[in-house]
Amino acid sequence: MDMPKTGKSWEEVRKELEARGAGDAKWRDGKTAVYVFNAGPEIAEVQHEAYTAFMSENGLGPLAFPSLAQMEREVVEMALSILNGPDWATGAITSGGTDSITMAMKAARDYARAEKGLKGPANIVLPQSAHPAFDKAAHLMDVEVRRIPLKTDGSYEADPRAMGDACDAATIMMVGSAPNFPHGVIDPIEALGDVAEAKGVWLHTDACVGGYFAPFARMNGVPVPPFDFEVPAVRSISADLHKYGYAAKGASTVLFRDKKLYDYMPFDAQNWSGAPMKTPTLAGTRPGGAISAAWAVMNVLGVEGYREKQGLVCETRERAEEGFKRLGFEVLGKPMLGLIAFRHPEHDSFAIYSEMYRKGWFTSITIDPPSLHLMLSPKHAEVIDQYIEDLAEACETVAKGKAGERVEARYN
Ligand SMILES: *Cc1c(COP(=O)(O)O)cnc(C)c1O
User: Fold this and answer.
1) 209 C-alpha vs ligand 1 centroid, how far in Å?
2) Which among 104, 237, 279, 410 is placed 20 to 30 Å from 132, CA to CA?
3) Is the pTM of this model over 0.85?
């Protein structure tokens, strides 16, 4: 398509925009359980208005926009207040989980070079279930990735002993997830902490999808094990605002136990023709709206608001678990938060997934072991019974050998 020679009216372009969305996943009615976190129309309005209020401002310029710098500081402080941050803990807002993970790895690598005499190649040790963002960051930094098989006891948890065995003098980081994405299970961060301390290795908790969920689930009485700075070996945490923080997209936090560790993260560029530019994260320009929307949603919800939303999600997951078990499904491990993976002992998970897709459900799958996967939002409380009904029908169709064509599930 060529750029139009003369522009059209906004009215005309707006109509076309609206029409284009028509073919997308129907997330607003709750039939999508991946990619979108639907906390309802009130929060959507806060995101929208708070984002547009600072849409043109740029987080790259804290001197020009002290408002954004202060909002960022306050978001980081609020995050640390729920994640057991010690006095000297600090952090930054990034563009997303991948950015947070990349920057935590950069800090850990530079720390190892400066304080542990690391020269030459480096590696990271992570459970098989950890997010591919670590591989991407490792690729960028030319770091070797050592993925270690999970425990074989059906818990789908990281195996601390095997991970410890994989560490050596060139290991810059060990990783645990809270929770991991494929199974929704929280890794044994305390046990990983013991190993990390014994080996003198930096432990990172990837709480991208659980950082703004697990603390509130715990306040609601869920027996969430220690996973954050409460575990002394945890030196950094990634926690995404644009997931269960219910912020607008383009916002995550990367947090450090100590300012001294944080100081290995920013990149200080002095040797160019322009003015000095020291940036904390991967981005140059940082959208002000992502910062203001996150700050606004946190202030609108507060602890009580998050507790209520996450309580609703946990309840919905429990209802889902009961329904799935009634239909003969097995739930993988012990999910405690908003993610759940499940499979049927007789019927092919991906055949069932395909039938559900044809019924209008856009969800995800887990490959190992082959399972269906849901990432639940508050909105799903209204539709989970329908999902379970449809699942019963889909099982019947597959059991009768009447399954239709396979739908491929992938993230690209
Ligand atoms: C979503 C997620 C990430 C990556 O976050 P993005 O914002 O998609 O870059 C990393 N780890 C876990 C466990 C996640 O769920």
Assistant:
1) 6
2) 279
3) yes
